[in-house]
Amino acid sequence: MFAKPKREAVMFKFMQLFAQGPPISRKELRDEVLERYEAIGRKIAQRYVRGNVNIKAGRFVTKRDIEERKKEKIES
Amino acid sequence: MDEEAFRAAAKRDISRLLLQWTHVEQWLKKAEQINGEAIIPAINELRYASRQLFNAINLFDKTPLADNEITKIGRRIIVAEQYLLNAEHDIYDSIVTFYHSVIVDIEERFGRNIITSHFQQYPAFRQHVKDCEVLIADSRGQYDNRAANYNRIRTAYVPAMISLHENLLDAQVSAAEEIGRTNRQIRLAEGRASLSFWLHVVSVPIAVVGIALAVYL
C-alpha cells in the first residue's frame, strides 16, 4: 500500500513517541558541563578554608624559622 | 650590615615581592576563570601580604633607622613573602584539586575510554594532574623541596593543563552527545520491538478468527 521509504517515515514518527523528547543541543550540553564545573569549584572553595585562622594565631613556619632551626641543629 | 646596605637590600626585596604580588593576582584570576569560584584563602593571604609590605614601607621612610626598626622591616618582608607563597600554593592546589575532581566526575559518567576517544590527549592530561599531586604531597613531606616542586607545577604542569581545558570541556560535550544518541537509538529499538510484539499478539487471534470463519463458511 505504502512505498517503503514512506512507511519507514511513518514508523519513525510513531517510534518517536517512545523517545524522551528531542535531542539536546550542543550548547545545552556545554552549559550542563559548565554547571558541573561550577559545582565542583564551589566544593573546592569551601574546602580551602585554612589559612587566616592559623596565620592570625601565628601557627605557621617562615623561611627564617627553618634557617634558625637548621642552625640550632648544626650547633647541637 | 650598615643602614645603607640594608636599605638597598630591603628595597630590592620589596620590589621583588610587589612584582610577585601581581603574578599571584594574575594566577588568582586564572584560577577563578577555570573553576568559577574565587580562592578566598589566597585572597586573604594577598591582603595580609600587602599589609605587611605597607607596614614595612612605612617604617622604611624613616631616617635614620633604629636597630629595632631594621629588625621589624626584615621580619615584615619575610612574613610578606611567606603570605605570598601561601597564596600561590593555595591557587595551584585548588587548580589541581579542581581537575582531579573533574577527572573523577567524567570517568564515573562516561568512562575513560569514551573520553579518550573524543580527547586523545586525555591520558597525558590525567598524568599531569597525578604528577602535580605527587609533587604537592612531596612538598609537604619534604619542606625543602617545596619551592622547586611548586616551580615545576607553575611552569610545566598548570600551563599545560590550562591549555587543554577547552579540549576537556569539548570532549565531555561530545561524550554526552554520544551517550544521548545511543540512548535514543536504544529507546527506538525497544519501541520497535514492542510494536512488533503487539502486532504479533493482535495478528494471531485475527488469523485464528479468520481461519475459523473460513472453515465455518
Question: Would you mind describing this structure in some detail?
Answer:
The complex is a heterodimer of chains A (76) and B (217). Chain A has 76 residues and is an all-alpha fold. The longest helix of chain A has 22 residues, at 26-47. Chain A has helices at 4-16, 26-47, 52-56, 63-75. Chain A is built from four helices and no strands. Chain A has a domain at 24-75. Chain B has helices spanning 3-35, 40-60, 67-109, 112-118, 122-141, 146-163, 165-216. Chain B has seven helices and no strands. The longest helix of chain B has 52 residues, at 165-216. Chain B is mainly α. Chain A binds chain B through residues 11, 14-15, 17-20, 23-24, 26, 29-30, 32-34, 36-38, 40-45, 47-52, 55, 60-64, 66, and chain B through 34-42, 44-45, 48, 75, 78-79, 81-83, 86, 90, 93-94, 97-98, 101-102, 105, 143, 169, 172-173, 176-177, 180-181, 184, 187-188, 190-192, 194-195.
**Main sheet overview of chain B:** none
Helical region count of chain A? 4
**Mean pLDDT score of chain B, rounded?**
90
Low-confidence spans of chain B: none
The interface involving the most residues is between: A-B, 37 and 43 residues
How would you name the oligomeric state of the polypeptide chains in this document? heterodimer
The ordered H/E elements of chain B are: HHHHHHH
Structure summary, number of beta strands of chain B? 0
Helix tally of chain B equals: 7
Order of helices and strands of chain A: HHHH
Number of strands of chain A: 0
Name the average pLDDT of chain A: 69
Segments of chain A where pLDDT lies below 50 for 5+ residues?
Answer: none
Helix content of chain B: over 70%
Gross morphology of chain B is rod-shaped
Radius of gyration of chain A: 32 Å
Described by the principal axes of the CA atoms, the overall outline of chain A is rod-shaped
Q: Compute the CA-based radius of gyration of chain B.
A: 32 Å
Give the end-to-end Cα distance of chain B, rounded to a whole number of Å.
126 Å
